[in-house]
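As the next step, I needed to go through one protein, both as residues and as discrete backbone shape codes, included below for the reader:
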Amino acid sequence: MKVNNRYSGSRIVIVSHIYTTGPSHMLECYLRNKGAEVLFLGHPFHFAPEPRSHYRWSQSGKTGENHYVNLFFRNDVINVIKDSLLTLWCVMKSGKFDAYVGIDGVNAVMGVLLKKLGIVRRVIYYTIDFVPKRFSFAPLNALYLWLDRVAVSGSDIVWNLSGRMTQEREKYGLSKAYRSKQHVVPMGTEGFQKKGSRDTYRKNSIAHMGHLVPVHGVSLLIQALPEIVKKVPSAHLEILGGGPEEDDLKRLASQMNVARYITFHGYIKSHDELLTMLSECAVGVAPYVDSADSFIRNSDPGKVKAYLDAGLPVIVTKVPDVWRELEKYKAGVGIEYDIHALSDAVIWILSDEKRLSTYREGANVMSRKYRWENIYTKALSFIDLGSRMP
């Protein structure tokens, strides 16, 4: 990202729950490089390898050191309360801010409260995922929906990863009067620069990246592998990421007699290393499971954009809407959640070198469209961040 002084003098706080890199980090980088003074506060997900909250300052185009808070509880509810109190303490002790970006509901509600206290001037509610039936326990789900409504109504602007989020909110009682403040701000790409030619990759290598949980459909991919290797004998599946399902998936691979065609790489800490490993593959697969409580349906998955960033065409189930645009750009194909549909799609794209080359070029074209620089420049054009609070 280019460095300029568009937001010079602006003080902005970003509060997010984090796992690896993502929209919150990209926004921090964008604002830092535009001259803003940025306070970044990150709280851990319960499954994150680093269990502590941290904060840091970015200014003059540089990111400062992380300061860690050594408080962590095994109870998720207590951790949410702890994170909220840490947010209030950290922001209030740091002076006044021109804008507060709260990624997801609880963090955004803290921004609404800080605005009422006169600490922040503008609040952006950045919705990474919204699932109306998030929790099976009805009172907890009602609280989740109430917090979302408070965040939407109290914020100056709402960024949604997809247009489906607005539709779903209105289905569950949010007034249409709030439609005009909601804007689609999709996942972006970083403009990954591979060392060497993008045309150098393992021709029959299939990639899956992400947390190994049932909703990501890796078991379907393993079940499709016997049919794939019949038609493409040199096919090999690279599973990049770890998670609670890893041992079960390894057992499934052995049961299906395809373990020799799979490499489990585990959790990869370096994002650059992850993109480099992806760029050495031929195609990326995202076989999401569809269900009423899946956050993928209303989202714009970062996995898909990471594949595109690395130059990979994408085979994705027709759960998130992004499959339509992938097909438009010839950057990928949308399929049903079905073993044969998945194996047929992988075979179709790998078995024709010219077709694979066409789809890889489509992936590069679509990736360039979704650079974070373009996305945040457009998103921030709808809100004034330029005036310092008194």
